[in-house]
Amino acid sequence: MTTLAVAALAMAAPGLAQETPTEREAAREVLQKMDALERSLDVPTLVARLSSASATRDAVAARAKQLVESELLALSDDICTHPEVGYKETRSVQKLAEALREHDFGVEVGVGGFDTAFLARRKGGRGGRPHMGVIVEYDALRGTNGAFHGDQHCSQGPIGIAAAVAIAEFLEKEGLPGTVTVFGTPAEELLEPSAKTQMHRNNVFDGMDVIVRSHASTTTSRPAPGFGTCCLNIDGVKYTFSGAPAHQMTAWNGRNALTAVMTLFQNIDSVRSNMRPEARIQGIITEGGAAPNVVPDRTQADFYIRYPDEVYLRQVREFVDNAAKAAALATGTKVKIDNYGSNRDGISTATLAELAFAYMKKYGAGKVQEAPGKPQGFEESGSVSRDIPGVGFSAYTSDWPNHTYEMDQDNLKPVGHDGFKVQAQAMAALLHDFATDASYRAAVEKEFAGIKALFGEYLRALETVYQTPAVTDPK
């Protein structure tokens, strides 16, 4: 580990430990406790020891790379060029299941309440703990020109399979205990509902000691330890307005639901100055009426309402709900509010993130970002990463931002292929260390339990600063 990387890690707590100045100030004592926990673990020394020369670890990583090059890059390219949106990824799941079965994994498709979710475990071996999970995704983005893999989810299955096969073969060959499970999780890009959250509620991830995952990135990075999410805490909400139809030439005989939904957007804009600037309110009109000569009697808007923490998000959500109610009242219509999904903060740990970062650099990752990023759980829903320690591998895989057609094109180029190989090797290497080093497992468990215990204190601290102004009755 370089001196610069050690210095960057030392800065991660408390200075970079949370996302906003309000969080850092309100939860100062919590972050000081987190800082003490991190210093007690001495993560730089731990990472230096684990990432030092090891023939067995490098052999496991080499096997993952060989699997990617010999068969799994072709699978990635195939899924990338046959995109399927969330909950409709039938072909992608079939291809991934076939690849797993070829490597002696038993695959169960249709788990956790979803037809395109699956669970796969290697047959044979000693089994038992540690229980190591690999999350793979495969849904495409919804675009105006059709589905496309502008987030490179098509590569996550092949990367995860390479690491899972490599570590499972190693455990069997050496006669070591350990169980490797691959979790196929659909619809990462949809909140309706959040697949991982529902799968977690249905006990699909129960018993895991660690979970790993990969994702596309324009840099090679890792998060600071703490509480957070990649894309802010989110409420997914639909606002459906109902009115009454009439001929547009005698519109006074009806009630215009399109006017209501347009007023909703205007009302939101009118109160933005009373919200903290970190709030993000993103909406589209999904139904706007059927014909220009008929007063629309049903319209709908779909919103992602976001804030860096879940405490102030409640106030932002109240603003938007009230904007919808006011729009309905002003236009003589009625509104139905449906909170159909949510993402919340997860937990990130330095013991996992720093080792993952060291291995990505070791195996040739490009565009390395030395300073840690904001804290974030290893999966976007927050539900799994609040309960089970894990890490997401973010190596440089594209020269273009996420959710772009150019990132989709990089799936098939050397920048994508090289990054996918780095992620597979680094993932396999970390799983090797987790499987073979009891002291490392203990350090991960200690850090995760410590940060999770501080999470409640952090939320209570924020409750004291996000006060709602008292509004008096007019006289």
Could you characterize the architecture of this molecule?
- The protein has 475 residues and is of the alpha/beta class.
- It folds into 2 domains: 3-229 and 345-460, 3-Layer(aba) Sandwich (Aminopeptidase), CATH 3.40.630.10; 233-343, Alpha-Beta Plaits (2-Layer Sandwich), CATH 3.30.70.
- It is built from 15 helices and 12 strands.
- It has a 6-stranded mixed sheet with strand order 1-2-4-3-5-12, covered by helices on one side. It has a 4-stranded antiparallel sheet with strand order 8-9-7-10.
- α5 runs antiparallel to α7 (153-174) and α6 runs parallel beside α7.
- It starts with a helix and ends in a 12-residue tail after the last helix.
- The relative contact order is 0.18.
What labels would you give this structure?
475 residues, alpha/beta, Aminopeptidase, Alpha-Beta Plaits, 2 domains, six-stranded mixed sheet, four-stranded antiparallel sheet, 15 helices, disordered N terminus
